[in-house]
Structure formats: C-alpha cells, structure tokens
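[#protein-structures] MJ: dropping YdcF family protein here for a structure pass
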Amino acid sequence: MLWIWIVAGAGLAAAAFIPPGLKQRWKIRNRLMKTAVSAGAILFCLYFFLVELGVLICLPSQGKENLDYIIVLGAAVYGTEPSPVLQKRLETAAAYLKRNQDTVVIVSGGQGPGEDISEAGCMETFLLEEGICKSRIIREEKSETTVENIRFSGSHIQEQEASVGIVSSNFHIFRAVVTARSNGLKHACGIAAPFGGLLLPHYAVREFLTFTFDLISGNLI
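AK: finished. structure tokens for YdcF family protein:
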C-alpha cells in the first residue's frame, strides 16, 4: 500500500507549486464557506482520531477463554507456506486452541495470485501439524476480503448466541471485530496476533482508509 504515501506526497508537492495568482483566485472569500470548510476539517480530524483510537485500543486484545468458535483471518501464502503475518496469526490461534479444547476453529481465506493452495488449506495444514484435531477445523476457502472472511465464516455458525473470537494481526482487530458484529456475530471479540516494527503506523493508517471504504459501502451497518 505504498501508493497511500505517494499520493499524499504528490498532493503536498502540487500544493506547494500552485502559482500565486491561481491561489488568489481559489481563495475562499465567503465567511460562511470558510466556516463550513473549517468545520468539515475538524470533523474529519475527529473521525480519523476516533478510528485510530479504536485501532490502538484493540492492539493488545486477548479475547475470552472457552469461546465456541474462533475465526482465523487469512493472509498471504508463499507457495504453500504461510507468510510471516499469517504465521503469527496461526501461532496465536494454535496457542488458544491448545488452551481451550472445546473451541472450534474456522480457517478463512481463498487462493490468491502466487499462492499454490488456498489460505484456508495452508492454515489447516499448520494447525494439524500443531496437533489440533481435524474434527475441530472448518475450512472456508472462497473469501477474498475481510468482509467475505466474516460473512462466509459466519454461515458455518448456526447458533445465534455463539461466542466467537476473531484472530488477526493486532492492527486489524478493530475493523475485523466491528465487521463481525455488523454481520450478525454479536458476541465477537478480538484475539490479536503480534505485529510490530516500523510498518505498524503504515498499516494503522491503511486500516483507517479501509474502514472508511467499508463504512461507505454499507459493510459496517
């Protein structure tokens, strides 16, 4: 998602080189319009702050013990091997499943470009190697987005009052849980897999943009 920063940088650079005459022509003289623009900017900043606060608060989410289900959200697979991001999610899921022997896991993710198998298939193999019984694993391998992960996985959950944990990278938990609760999993909670380093702020900003897109698209109603 490097394009986010390229577009932002290009916009700032373009603004710096606007000819003075053009700037004057664009200058807002109407006081009411100035007030509206200022109010809009304040509301946008407040919205950005609230979303990022939600992302920040959810970073250390550990969920609850003895959940009925956990859903592991897919991430990239390199050939047949999990990417580092997916590896962390799977390690987190395996640790939870070993502590909670009655919890059923839904591994969710289709097959994308450069992937020799589906993300769900890769996750199932990993969990089996970790000693998780096959009868506890449900594969959902049609989804391509977080919204589809949640909706398609939710179709495997018949109990309306089921407790569900969403396993994903820490920066992704806020949007994933809001999506789950908006799509009928009203007792959903987050189980955060660790992710850190210099790229964390980048992914936090990306979550704001994707959350906004999902909100506008009606996926978070």
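MJ: nice. The radius of gyration is 21 Å.
AK: one more thing. Residues 1-5 have pLDDT under 50 and may be disordered.
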